[in-house]
Every structure is written in structure tokens, then in C-alpha cells.
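re: ur question from the group chat, yeah i did fold both. here u go
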Amino acid sequence: MYALLHFLAGVLLLVPCLFWLIEDAVRRAFKWPCEDNCFTWAMRNWRYRKDIGLVITKSRSSWFPHISLIRFDEDYAVRIEYVPINRLNLKLPPRKFKGRVVETVFDKVSQP
């Protein structure tokens, strides 16, 4: 039963994500003003960089996922994410928001 609920929740989240990607492409093609959310920002930056991976975590604001990018170098990893300037407490994922890019550097721990 839980597998079915998780599948349905994934489908429900996929629909707005596809809409956001199409809307973002149309707005940029016509040079209309654009704002992003973490998903559209991550997809736009991930497509052109082969050395970056996607990280999907639970949002700090609510139940929905937060998507960020991660880049691994030899001695450290850098998590790059697009976050709201002001924390949003919502029941549904935000369509768009004014945000900023935050980079967090993690040192790699050597394995014995």
C-alpha cells in the first residue's frame, strides 16, 4: 500500500515539474521576466554540466522535496542550491520565488 502511495505522490509531483520546465523554456524564449524555484534552477544548470549530480532531499519548509546540485572534486564536495531569500512555510511546493544561490563545501573524509 505504501509503495502505491509513494508512486502516486511521485506522479503528482511530476506534473507540476513538467509544467514548470515548459513554462520556463517559453518565458526564456520570448525573453519574458522569469523567476525560478529549486527544481527549475537545478534542471537548467544540471543540463550543461556533466561533472555535477542532482541531490534530492526533504525541504526545510515542508514535506515536498528540495533539489540541489553537487560537484565532487578530489579533496572536497560542493553542494550548490537555490534557496528562498525569506523562508517559505507552505503546504504545496512554491511555483516560483525570489532566491539566492548558496554553496556549501564539505571536506572528504579519507577512508583507512
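okk and heres the other one u asked abt
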Amino acid sequence: MKQPTFEQMKEFLVKRYKHSRLYGDPGDYGPGVVHGDCVVRSTLEYITKYSAGCAASQYESATGEAVWCQIVDGEIREVDADTALLAMKKPLESQAA
């Protein structure tokens, strides 16, 4: 299955995250570490592993509502929570077998 790139995930999150929660955080995370890039990388790893997931909580989201996404044909698509949770269940069931 084709997987989305870091840049695709970053574009998806930048459009949906509060700037202050993603790239507006000036905290000291170590030399050369950018908080927003860490969030993008970890979100991409998670949705790649489970095919879907919560990309931003209600506190991080620009709209105040959680953002759920799913990988469909190598693209990241925003979906409702039920759709994402059903998509996530399939990889979990195959791991249990």
C-alpha cells in the first residue's frame, strides 16, 4: 500500500492545527529539534501503522473539534471518528491473529 509522505502529513496538519500548538511553540526541545516536525512525524507513524487515527485533539484543532484521518490510496483524508475507528480496528485484528 502506498504511504503518505512527511510533507503530505505536514500540509494536512498545518491546515487543521492551531499554529500555537504546532509550529508556534518556541520550547527548547534540544538542538535542531522542531516541535511541529516531531508532531508531524509521530502522527504519520501512527496513521501509517493503523491506517487511521486522531490527527488533532479538540485542544489542538483550529476548529475546536477533534480531527480524524484515514489513509486512502496513499492519501490522507479527513474522516469522521466512526470511520477512523473502524479502519483502525482492521490492523489490530490482524495483529491479534
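fwiw on the second one: The chain has four helices and three strands. The longest helix spans residues 35-50. idk if thats what u expected
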